[in-house]
């Protein structure tokens, strides 16, 4: 009997049902579900997930999903994790007009043409087709021109495969990447740094020394500031002295009078 129940539960997990969604979220109404995490459940059929029309974040990592059709009705979806599935066709995502972050690493997307359906998604700014941390990828990533083609196809994206390509931090990332590439190209030999006698310092000697301006206005401002600072210190010392005297006199008044008998 127990084995039969376990088999029924496994079968339910293979397909997304209203019962599964309600038990996972605690919501009675599917339209009330805003965030949904269904990781590593062996799901291959998304079932009624399209009825969660107000869903904003969906995590389907580590399943066996192949058909994304039920996701076409999720127009409010902004974050979608489909990594580690068996997806080759992402056409249904065309209607997810609010999509901003999309993770497709670890699937079977074979060409950049398969990504054309996402071009109309104006809010899309973060796409991942490859994840080196977990060794997830797609066949399309094997192409030497993959990165250049994707960046040309999506000129507004800020992050590709976890690497910031525009915006704050992108220049630093590119600099670090260039340094790594230089090292790999042969800056080290037998574990030793190769010396280049023609190399010059980035800046001239004395570049980092603080130099005071000869401008008379600035010099006068320095002088006035120092004078004001000196007066403030004197006033602070006087105030401290007055406060100390006042506290001493008040403590003497509070002491009880003693009479000698």
Automatic annotation (TrEMBL):
PROSITE patterns: LRR (PS51450)
BP GO terms, sorted: outer dynein arm assembly
Pfam family, one: LRR_9
UniProt xrefs under SUPFAM superfamilies: L domain-like (SSF52058)
The keyword Hydrolase belongs to this UniProt entry's keyword annotation: no
Gene Ontology CC terms: cytoplasm
Gene3D superfamilies assigned to the protein according to its UniProt record, in alphabetical order: Ribonuclease Inhibitor (3.80.10.10)
Domain of life according to the entry: Eukaryota
Keywords from the named record: Leucine-rich repeat, Repeat
Protein name listed in UniProt: Leucine rich repeat containing 61
Species for this entry: Poecilia latipinna
